[in-house]
Amino acid sequence: MLTYDMASLFQHPLKFRARIPSAIVTFGGRPVGQCRIQVQRRKGAQDVENQDELLLSWDVATLKSWCTDVEEEIAILLQRDEDRATRTELAAVVVAVAVMAHIEPQTLFTRRSSTGTRHDYYLNETRDEMIEIAGRWEAGLPGLFEEKRDQSNLNRQLRKRWVSVTIVLQSPRNRTERRHP
Amino acid sequence: MTGTQAAEYRELELQSSNLLLEADSRLVLSRYEEAAFHALQAGRSRARMGELNYKADEWAGAAEDWLSAAACFLRATAPQQAQTVLRLVQQLSSEGKIPAHREDVRVAQEERTQELDRLRARARDLQRELDAQGCRPDVAAPKAIPFLVGRVREFPGFWPLHYLLFRQASALGDRALARKHLRWEATFDPDNANFTALLGFMHLADGRPDPAIELGSDFLARSPVSAGSVRVMLANAFAQEGGAGSRERAIEVLRPLLDDGGVDVKQRIAAVALSALFSRELGQEQEFARLLRELEALAGAAPSSGVADVIAEFRRSLPAAPNGQGSSRNGGTYALPEAVRRRLFEGARELTVGPMSLGAGGP
Prior knowledge:
heterodimer; A: 181 residues; alpha/beta; B: mainly alpha; Serine Threonine Protein Phosphatase 5, Tetratricopeptide repeat; 2 domains; 2 strands; elongated
């Protein structure tokens, strides 16, 4: 099993740390927590799909020393269900960064793209290495991964990695869950 | 790319990526205006990246960056900026400069164009709704505010919405809401002289001339237009500082409005009245008399009876002859009574930044 502490996000030049509140809330919203996440990945368009399990951990008290607003932002996110699909995708990016830290530790995320899909990144300061990331609740957004792959295949010259994150260990929360444990 | 350009490109690449990451995080927090602002800034960075690629004859890269900029501008609900960069992509495309194998660029170009069309259609729908609700800048309508606030999520960077909210909140006495949306309208339309002037007047109302002077000076440094409302605001700010030097700076900043015959008549009237005030206070008697005569001449050209009334008020506030009556001596200058000065400044402000039509500069 792969392990990753969200505090490591602060080592990236890209501000993935801005994703931390969304990830924590997506994975349960506890101040200190761990979450097992299923990840499907392919190293390239022609490669076979691999399955991984990631244990993502966090401690808000530690994160606060780098990001003073993290607690407040988690509290806001716990109170609202709007834009939950976006929040799930933001959490998926955190998972993708965590997985890549294990399987390609030298690979750098260097640019956020937005010509096609919204959550894709260029790697290693190149214009032909990319990573495609899809995040969804189990059975929540069927076909999303395939749709993103079709969009990406419009430019076949890219060297692409794929990471698809399926959140299966949590039920989608509702607004009152925290008030009625 | 040259070494310098490549370094600038890398810096913009990182900066714009981080701005987009920030935009996402603000969006899920319901901080819609902040999200739009970050997206707008990211779009500007990506537009510059497109320029750098274009200069380096990297056509596909330029198209990619400009399409990315368009996506950012559309997220920011900024249709004019999106249109500008999409035209650049269209030009590259029509010149055959995008390689045939870049199907992704062609598809993205179509998508962005359709998204721009949809944004414009939504903006037209919004305008119709505003009309139906009776939301106008010059008429206070209590029901308008909840309606307008409810549309911010869909149009977070759409300055006409923030302008209406500012006007409505001002008219109904909700100063905090008015200030919030005044800041956003000036942020999302930074080239609009009236919004910059309004923001400057807000600083002056707080007794803070320094940020008002900085704001107005920055605007004049980058704007080729006469920007009468900004000049009137700046003159007001200089006057708030006090002293002969500040009055001279105020006259200097107003001078282009006096010298240029093509200036909007309301702005010219305000500039003449304030210049007369400062000339009077500096003891420049001949100039004061000349400006009074000009003010009288402008009364005949006033575009409306309301403007003529303001000129008459100016004339009543300014003494007919520089005899020192009603003024006090202060370090080589004469200061007119504060109530008189306030009436003049308020009149000048209303003349230059009063309610404007949303048709001007709208989407």
